[in-house]
């Protein structure tokens, strides 16, 4: 029996990978332009029947799918890391204002400082994400009970509302910033060139490494800060490493697809249910990578759905995710034991 049990986590990984692979294929096959599967396959292997088909596949659908994989993994992993680090089931880059901070900083870089290239404004995205996370945490600490889940969520909503208002004010005075603001508000993988994935990948890769390196310490932290300290964990270093990972993952994702919320909230909860069924339990060494594997599936599924439900136009993936994630967030807030924390 002891030899069979490790197969269950591997089966879960295989199932999630298979779902992701299917969604990647669908993302390449479906879109506003009606292309046959045969034409798409020929274009992928260098024998496109026309220049139009080649452009649709390689200039639109391949980058879009790649961004869905990279940014989805980043947002899912950031949400799982935030929930484990703060022991807050409502934690998510979008809910706690981290994405709004990155968006505000990007529009500020474009509208005020005139930085139009990715490598120009991505550093502002990191700074904005970090600053917003610090402000929300300090707001959540106000009062006797400390940073409870609901207080952090309310602080995130307040910071997001404030930053969105200021961002709107900046964008209204600058047409280029307005175009960027409209893009970041909706949250979409469309209208990106083929090099977008390559530009964002190094930042996400570093964030992934930092996040996964936190996993053993997070298992100790789940037992309490005193227990973690008794195990030799340096809590300050763990938090600093976690914040750095969340900043890189969220800032990079927002810089290319905008502030898509609820990915990091919903995915870790689904992963914990699946992990429990697979006999993994609350082991962050499994939960973090599984969140990074499942999140792109949700983002790609939302993007595909947005392409097909409103042809010949599209509904942005961020709108679809918000429509699905909003009720989940409300249900989480209304849970009795959360309301009393």
Automatic annotation (TrEMBL):
Transmembrane portions of the chain: 62-82, 94-115, 121-140, 152-172, 200-222, 243-266, 286-305, 317-334
One cellular component (GO) term of this entry: plasma membrane
Gene Ontology molecular-function annotations: transmembrane transporter activity
Subcellular location: Cell membrane
InterPro entries to which the protein is assigned, alphabetical: ABC_BtuC-like (IPR037294), ABC_transptr_permease_BtuC (IPR000522)
Organism superkingdom: Bacteria
Keyword Transmembrane helix set for record: yes
Matching Pfam families: FecCD
Bilayer topology annotation: Multi-pass membrane protein
SUPFAM superfamilies: ABC transporter involved in vitamin B12 uptake, BtuC (SSF81345)
An example Gene Ontology biological process: siderophore-iron import into cell
Keyword Ribonucleoprotein on entry: no
Keywords per UniProt: Cell membrane, Membrane, Transmembrane, Transmembrane helix, Transport
PANTHER family: FE(3+) DICITRATE TRANSPORT SYSTEM PERMEASE PROTEIN FECC-RELATED, FERRIC ENTEROBACTIN TRANSPORT SYSTEM PERMEASE PROTEIN
Entry similarity comment: Belongs to the binding-protein-dependent transport system permease family. FecCD subfamily.
Name by which UniProt lists this protein: Iron chelate uptake ABC transporter family permease subunit
Organism: Streptomyces boncukensis
């Amino acid at each position: 029996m002891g030899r069979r049990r490790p197969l269950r986590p591997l089966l879960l990984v295989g199932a999630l990978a298979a779902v992701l692979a299917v969604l990647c294929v669908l993302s390449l096959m479906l879109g506003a332009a009606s292309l046959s599967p045969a034409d798409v396959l020929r274009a992928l292997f260098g024998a496109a029947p026309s220049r139009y088909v080649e452009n649709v596949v390689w200039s639109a659908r391949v980058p879009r799918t790649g961004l869905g994989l990279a940014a989805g993994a980043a947002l899912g992993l950031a949400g799982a890391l935030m929930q484990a680090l703060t022991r807050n089931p409502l934690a998510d880059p979008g809910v706690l204002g981290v994405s709004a901070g990155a968006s505000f900083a990007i529009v500020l870089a474009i509208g005020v400082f005139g930085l139009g290239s990715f490598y120009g404004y991505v550093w502002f995205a990191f700074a904005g994400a970090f600053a917003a996370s610090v402000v929300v945490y300090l707001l959540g600490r106000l009062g006797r009970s400390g940073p409870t889940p609901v207080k952090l969520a309310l602080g995130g909503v307040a910071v997001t509302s404030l930053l969105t208002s200021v961002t709107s004010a900046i964008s209204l005075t600058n047409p280029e910033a307005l175009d960027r603001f409209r893009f970041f508000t909706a949250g979409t993988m469309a209208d990106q060139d083929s090099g977008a994935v390559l530009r964002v990948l190094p930042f996400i890769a570093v964030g992934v490494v930092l996040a996964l390196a936190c996993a053993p310490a997070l298992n100790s932290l789940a037992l309490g800060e005193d227990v973690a300290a008794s195990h030799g964990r340096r809590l300050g270093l763990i938090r600093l490493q976690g914040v750095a990972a969340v900043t890189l993952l969220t800032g990079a994702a927002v810089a290319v697809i905008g502030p898509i919320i609820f990915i990091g909230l919903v995915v870790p909860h689904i992963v914990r249910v699946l992990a429990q069924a697979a006999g993994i339990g609350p082991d962050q060494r499994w939960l973090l990578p599984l969140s990074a594997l499942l999140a792109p599936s949700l983002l790609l599924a939302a993007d595909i759905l947005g392409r097909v439900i409103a042809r010949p136009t599209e509904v942005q993936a961020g709108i679809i995710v918000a429509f699905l994630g909003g009720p989940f967030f409300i249900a989480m807030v209304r849970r009795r034991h959360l309301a009393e924390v």
